[in-house]
Amino acid sequence: MRKLLFSLPFIIACLPFSNVEAQTWLQRIDDYLTASYRKGDIDTTFIVRPPTKWTLLARHNFSGQKIETEGSRDEHHFYSEMKADYKSTISARVSYLGFSVSLALNPAKLLGRYDDFELNVNSYGRRLGFDIIYQNAHNFTGWQETDGTGHLKLPAGLLELKTLNLNAFYTLNNRRFSFPAPFTQSYIQRRSAGSFLLAVSGQGQKGTVEGEKLEKSEVLPAQEMKFQMTNIGIGGGYGYNYVPASGWLLHISAIPTFIVYSKTSLTFGGTRVPLDYHFPEVIITGRGAILRQKGNKFFGMSMVFNFTNIGDRESLEVHNIKWRLRTFFGLRL
Questions:
Q1: How high is the pLDDT of residue 281?
Q2: What are the backbone angles phi and psi of residue 94, rounded to the nearest 5°?
Q3: CB-neighbour burial class of residue 101 (10 A; exposed 0-12, middle 13-18, buried 19+)
Q4: pLDDT of residue 2
Q5: Residue 69: which of 158, 166, 132, 201 has the closest Cα?
Q6: pLDDT confidence of residue 198
Q7: Measured between alpha carbons, how far is 122 from 330 in angstroms, rounded to an integer?
Q8: Is 139 helix (H, G, I), strand (E, B) or coil?
Q9: Can you tell me whether residue 44 is helix, strand or coil?
Q10: Could you give the dihedral angle defined by the CA atoms of residues 153, 157, 160 and 165, in that order, rounded to the nearest 10 degrees?
Q11: What is the DSSP string of 212-278?
Q12: CB 178: neighbour CB atoms within 10 A?
């Protein structure tokens, strides 16, 4: 007890010093992060970092998926289209010197009105960037047209589909062209510039068409269908950031990749159906955005579009379409 009493004045005397030391170390860390955030081999005539450290962002995301098939069966041509339920989420993000924390909510999911699952992970760096989209959807609705039967509606829940899309790219002209400027707002594009892009894309799918619902549809034979597809493509494209006036930014880019590896497995009623590779099979990723900045505020809209084409329409051709539309409003502090 006596030792404690004798130590208290020393501890109290050291407390202000400890606070000063802590503040000094925090300042050093902040200075290091700031310097690391702002440094880089860039042409500041074209792109710069925001002058502030904090960015607060509110977003609304709206996405959808569509599957189109076309081909011939028993000398009859057919075409079908099936759409998954639309997904709508609201999210908030807080960023400090490039480090971000975000939270997203799906109101329809919370109310029990949306049963599908979707995960979007994206990163847009000055040189490298990628999009990863995973969706497990079973609330598809659609229709089919076949020679001799006309337009027929397909029942809900006929198709259950798991899809993984990946697109990664490298920006060649990264000193003057900024992908993050329209999509994450971690850079500001000051003058118009474009860049060639190198890319690799991949898609994996696994689906089941339920036999019982096929029977009720009276469109196809009542046999279960299962398919699994894996595609990898390499290629390149071009992106352009257009600055028509101070505070405005318009972005458009397209990256086609040609499939160099394809593995497809399709069984119909327990019988395997071969699907041969048919050139050209492609995976195309398109992006667009419009951004308006006024002082420390900014707002706008962006879009990511994935299109995959495999097969041959003389036998069976499949189009996979996945898109995401995002509106946003942010503050820089």
A1: 87
A2: -120, 125
A3: exposed
A4: 45
A5: 158
A6: 97
A7: 18
A8: coil
A9: coil
A10: 70
A11: HHHHHHTSS-S--EEEEEEEEEEEEEEEEEE--STTEEEEEEEEEEEEEEEEEEEEETTEE------
A12: 31
CB-based burial, 186-223: b 16+ in 10 Å, e otherwise: bbbbbeebebebebbbbbbbbbbbbeebbeebebbeee
pLDDT reported for residue 195: 97
The rounded Cα 312 to chain-centroid distance in angstroms is 28
- Separation between Cα atoms, residue 188 and residue 243, nearest integer Å: 11
- In this structure, what token pair is assigned to residue 243? 């600055």
Whether 281 contacts 258, CB under 8 Å = yes
Residue type, 120: N
pTM metric for this prediction = 0.83
Over the chain (333 residues), the average pLDDT of each successive run of 10 is: 46 53 76 78 92 93 89 77 90 88 83 80 89 87 78 78 92 95 93 96 86 53 74 95 96 95 77 70 93 95 92 80 94 93
153, amino acid identity: K
Cα–Cα distance, 125 to 290 (Å, whole number): 19
